[in-house]
Specification:
alpha/beta, globular, 266 residues, disordered C terminus, Undecaprenyl pyrophosphate synthetase, disordered N terminus, single chain
Amino acid sequence: MSLTATIPQGLDRKEAEIYAQLDLGRIPRHVALIMDGNGRWAKKRHLPRVAGHRAGVAAVRSTVETAARIGVPALTLYAFSAENWKRRPRTETGFLMELLRRYLKQELPRLKENNIRLEYIGRKQELPQEVQERMGWARDATAENTGMVLTLALNYGARTELVDAFNDIVRAAAGNGGIAHLKIDEELVGRHLYTRNLPDPDLVIRTSGEMRLSNFLLWQLAYAEIYVTETLWPDFRGRHLLEAISEYQKRERRYGGLLEPEANNN
């Protein structure tokens, strides 16, 4: 089969070159992405921070479309953390909320074209009402799509997710005979997480070179492969995603065990 026949439509030449080297049987089922570096990108250019956020939209578009084209089943983007409300100026958080509203409206045709279904995780009920309405509108408009699930983590924190999960578990038990016989195990916790309808991420990517998870999917990333790039988020594109997947495929995933059992020395 020719190279052009095997490369998904829409990939540029560099993306196609990387894609051609991938093992299509080992595409991650779920990629999580910590989008970091907007402020530093703007500072390097002597621009206000909001310019970095605005520039980051192009990175989202390229990454989302490339992921969908190569058959990644699920992509989760850390778009707005619960801590952002406390640690960012109100003018900046207000700009981010308006940017989100515009993004959802402007990108909806592209999401439909790429058969992408949109979902959200986080304490959505604490977001401004007009933002919640736009989020619901965009989700409903993509609900029948059958391709990649794009999840935006908004007003999200992994610790608050676990708190919400445990509270849900206790409430459910209290309404079903009491908590005296409640048995909490990993499966039960998983059923009450925001991500209960998604597989755990195989790969988490962080841009800007920072070596931390920043309270993102702490439970779900227990055995994920971590890939860190120095690229600032506004400069990130589909080819960078493919490079991360290529690196992921070079690793041996052990899940705390050994690939081959050690010889019995007894």
